[in-house]
# Entry
Amino acid sequence: MKLTFLGTSDAFGAGGRRQAALFVETRAGGLLLDCAPTTNTALAALGIARDAIDAIALSHFHADHFAGVPSLVLACVWEDRRRRPLLVAGPPGVEQRVLDAAAAIGHPLRDRPLPFALRFQEVGAGAASEVGPARIALFATRHDPESCPHGMAVEADGRRLVYSGDTGWFDELPDRARGADLFVCECNFYEYELPTHLSYRVLHDRRRAFAGGRMLLTHLGSEMADRRGALEIETADDGMAVEV
Ligand SMILES: [Zn+2]
Ligand SMILES: [Zn+2]
# Structure
């Protein structure tokens, strides 16, 4: 499994970087984890074909994680002449959330004929489901309830990647990350405290609870942007690729 960070900033583009999205390449196909308004730009900048994406799995319904889906679908139509199906999976309500967002930004997709099948799949928290080329299990996180927040465990090629999505600290977080070959964890702040996001200080203080597996920090806000690469826990950057 190969993971490429398409965007590693917070919701506001701190440090001039792009918003949340991860591209996972497996032997069975490509999977996008989250799809931000900056994701088409990221794919173009990194030379990754949209056609390599079989499925998109969304962690929650905040704009910096899912508002890029309508424009990605339109680019599949107009730029790529796509014919292969595209699956969009996510927490309950995913189809309505994406279609409502598409209508609101002036690119309605509801009942619009497309030259490929656009499918939606709800994934509840708990047991793993087949989502395109991987098996994905969602878990609830501590974040704005309105956004239906989840993290996810992704299994493919015999490897396990856990992605926190957006979350503040909750005591089960290390359990969710246990057994992961790589844990990609949000770290919006360095020391500022919010119940709905994590800070480096909190993660560093509790690092041992994560049992020593590889951890990469993403969703880096302005406090973290300047400290990137100079901290004890590894930080991700736009375009960074790692073998999981
Ligand atoms: Zn976010
Ligand atoms: Zn969020």
In short: Residues 94-104 form the longest helix (11 residues). The longest strand covers residues 134-140.
